[in-house]
Predict the structure of Lipid scramblase CLPTM1L.
Amino acid sequence: MWIMYNIFSPPMCTGPNAACVKSYLTKNPKMELELMVSTKMSAVAGDMTSVWNYNNFSLMDTVEKELSVSIPASTRKNGSLYVHAFLYPQGKSHSASSALVRTSTLITTYALPRAEFINLLGDDGGNKTKKPGAKNKPHTHWRSRLTISVMSDNITLDRRAIPGEIYRYLKITSDGKYFYPILFLDELGFRLKDLLPVNESSTSMPLTVTYTPISVGKLRMWSSFLESFKMLQGLGFTEKDTDEIKGIFADTNFYFLLLTFGVAAFHLLFDFLAFKNDIQYWKKRETMVGLSSRGVKWRCIQTIIIFFYLLDEDTSLLVTIPAGISTVIELWKVKKVYKLKVRRTGFISFTWEFGETTAKERETEEFDNQAMKYLSYVLYPLVAGGAVYSLLYVPHKSWYSWCLQSLVNGVYAFGFLFMLPQLFLNYKLKSVAHLPWRAFMYKAFNTFIDDVFAFIISMPTAHRLACFRDDVVFLVYLYQRWLYPVDKKRVNEFGMSFEEEEKAKGKPELKEESKKTK
């Protein structure tokens, strides 16, 4: 909290020996804003074209303007285009020499063309001809949204203690008493979803310009975020990899974003605790009594399907990598279910050994099979019907994409059915003592946190609904925990009962009493 306070309230310039600089806006608050475009970063007046003049400029108002920008021939031929923002004193002529401040950025970027969606049952049978190599060649794309801001806080800075985040934007007058208004082009607002392809026939492109004031604290945070994204790109992350993170900042209310930081910290904590306890639980688990083995196997299949779906959709590495790790963990759990042991018999030869099942495990397996038998009557027709509907009415990139999409729809929409066999086992055994409740509770807390993130982060509707389906199952688990109180004679998740643990400990408190009686 103290760090956040210092970010939003930088130290004021005080003292007789301080070298103070005031905001130029206290001297002349009336400004005019002009937006120009050119094919060069350091363009002169003759190379630029004006696209918007905001003469009745009000510093504290938020304004949105729809523009149509003419595209030069060089840009249409896979070239670049820059946007330049100028701030002038009101009433002054609009020339580069009279501008108080100027800032520039690229309004175009290079990106791969988006995959075309086609009807797989059309005349071409999903084999639409394409230009060779066109898909893998980056092409000029237009950023259709631009946000411009001026720092609105009236602060006085010490020239010897200027915060590093705003130092790069600061320009001081010749007399050293004032700093010019800080003009900021919000590159965090550049989203991939707003990109439009620029073709040779594109003579003009739409541009939505938004002016909004920015506080000194938000400016410092946004500047730090931009530097962090540049560091990620230096580590090999592409713009697509960081796009979803940028969306959290660009598409979310700022104060709601601060709340999200706190929630995300708890989410990370619960993720770590759930991961730690889940691994510990399955590492010590030697029996599947009371646990749905089919549920574990189906969950593994779901994770694999989602992982390949994310790869097919070119999802960010920030999402794909955790999904891949989850896939490996789920495969390890399946190995524990089958009690599989791999023994090396030679240099490149191995043998596979499956453990034997006990009578209680076979009883659990019978209940598990019974539950899945009932669920199959509902699950298979729903998945098949959804796949047929998707094939008839929804365009897809390829037959492979249709297969993955159909499987993922089944996982997202009906995945909660795979959780029901465990509920059925709990009902038959009249116990929940066999469940890893510590890891389960951490995951449940994260489920409710995911409900909050479902409204913040852009995601498919099916995935958003999947966040809420887990809440229903969790509430049923809680009801079963209340309905079936702990029986100290039943085995826990490690195959031991409470009474056996007391015998193993030797009941030291009883030994102390026996010594006293002697």
